[in-house]
């Protein structure tokens, strides 16, 4: 890590935002060259580029992205799967695998300016994050500005659809089949698919595959026997696991272990 560079940092949201927000996060890169991999996770993110005062919404992804490394200062929020329509006001399937300027969605085009200005002139009265976080006053101020914006946007928002939230939880936590989930929540497969296109942006089956891939990636990060891991996660065999990783993560199991892309184990759990 270069001098003056902040590693990727995740921060749990305040309790009042937790029904919608998975994590706030920051990433500062001072160098150019190379790439970093972003695994699909069923989440929607809003990214504020503090270095150029721009804000974008990144929709749910079906496959991994390779992002070129370039100088950047990011302050961002990641929404839980099935909750971001409270911000977007449109069906999330319209945003899948897309990155859209917030202003083009009619969402507070001034957000980037608010976050950048807060970082440039930190106000101690706004720093309500934990003093234990090893962040600069500027980073605290930027996060505080983003939190204030989220609270403003979500104050009168409809709560997340409880049916979708329950289905997301079941599909994320284990190896539940889509038919089992539809039985558990009491709707047809077609109804659940329509609800997911609207509220998640991907299908229930896609989320189930992504969740299992995320669990595999989390375990591969610390080393694992492929045959055992495949059996534990319900893949047909080691070949099936390798195929799914190549299709969803874009790399082989060995490359996942070596590259160590971020895996959201707190959302999707891990294998033993």
| N- and C-termini, Cα separation | 31 Å
Q: Classify the beta-strand content into a percent band.
A: 15-25%
Number of domains: 2
Largest sheet strand order: 1-2-7-4-5-8
Q: Please provide the count of β strands.
A: 8
Number of continuous helical runs? 11
> What sort of overall outline do the alpha carbons produce when their principal axes are compared?
globular
Helical residues, percent: 40-55%
Mean pLDDT: 88
Q: Output the radius of gyration.
A: 19 Å
Describe the biggest sheet?
6 strands, antiparallel
Low-confidence sequence ranges: 1-5
Question: Would you list the SSEs in sequence order as H and E?
Answer: EEEEEEEHEHHHHHHHHHH
Structural class: alpha+beta
Topology:
Elements (H helix, E strand, L loop, with lengths): L8 E3 L9 E9 L5 E4 L5 E6 L4 E5 L6 E4 L3 E8 L5 H4 L10 E3 L9 H10 L16 H18 L7 H12 L4 H8 L3 H11 L4 H17 L5 H8 L4 H11 L4 H7 L5 H4 L4
Antiparallel strand pairs: 1-2, 2-7, 3-6, 4-5, 4-7, 5-8
Helix pairs in contact: 2-3, 4-5, 4-7, 7-9
